[in-house]
Amino acid sequence: MAIIDATPTQPQTSTGAASRVPDRRRFGVLVLAAGAGSLLGRSALAQPAPDEVRVIDFEWIDAARDRTVPARFYWPAASTRKGPVPLIVFSHGLGGSRKGYSYLGEGWSARGVASLHIQHVGSDETLWRGNPLLLLDRLGGAADEREAIERTRDVSFGLDRLLQRDSPFHAAIDRKRIVAAGHSFGANTTLIVTGAQVIRDGKPLGFRDPRFTASIVISAPPFYGETDLAAVLASVDVPTLHITTTEDTIRIPGRYSPVQDRIDVYTAIPTSRKTLVVFQGGPHNVFTDRSLQNGGPLNPLVKRATAEVGLAFLELVHKSDPAPLEDWSETWKPILAAAPTPFQVDMPTSARKRRA
């Protein structure tokens, strides 16, 4: 179950669902017609003011594994909290850190959803330091099966610490609304903690954490070395939101993953409670905090839209209300190659009245 992600060197559009989309020229016309400012202005997600987001860094140590687990916690201001607070636990991609994906932490917490960003010390930003001639060796070690397992344990350990009785957030977090999320290698981590497993020595090997009620899977690589993706994902039964782009290609020596792999992961999830978002354009790293040469003018739009669609997805999953996702699709239509379709839910009476 070796898993890896990397910065793509050449964009590539795959065949399949993601390829049946407008070409780049039409996309440019759409964006010019809509206007970047117009899209951001119509967006339902308010930009967080400095006093709306409380950011706390933790330096935890898992004594049982003798492993450091740093984390950054985004906690909503009292004005945005309404009862017990939903929580998203986020896992970064290869070479990332707890400081990355800040646009998600800030955007979600500004709307009353807390997020805990775990840093995985075996596959974090330290990979880029040291002798550049040994970089490939470091990448290979960081992306092997052992580190994939340790990452899932990092996520569960971080959640344990946040929910333990001596935590100041113990009573404030809604245990019924805890969601796993991640980008790239972190998307694989998310799938593992929500049910993905492999067979080793004739026995299933899995690290599912039943506390997670849903997952947000951004740019998931395939499970390298596994030949039956459907079998690996057969036990993933929580609602899932999958996010990718038409240029979401991964390339490093010895590893190549086209856009179609993201579609294949989505397709292999056995539950019908899943939805797929495909943005028109933007490379694999458009979802990171990096901006230079990562999508150009599209970059801030994709980031803003990604933060928003996560919130809309939570409304669908936890409140059975498809309206926010439908509204999101209409707002961001100019930059979408494939808009998400809400899965079947039993809409509460209050939600039906709002839509009437």
TrEMBL record:
Protein name, entry field: Acetylhydrolase
InterPro entries to which the protein is assigned, alphabetical: AB_hydrolase_fold
Entry keywords, A to Z: Hydrolase, Lipid degradation, Lipid metabolism
Biased amino acid composition, Polar residues: 7-17
Residues annotated as signal peptide: none
Top-level taxon in the UniProt lineage: Bacteria
Species this chain originates from: Methylobacterium ajmalii
Key word Hydrolase present: yes
Region (Disordered): 1-20
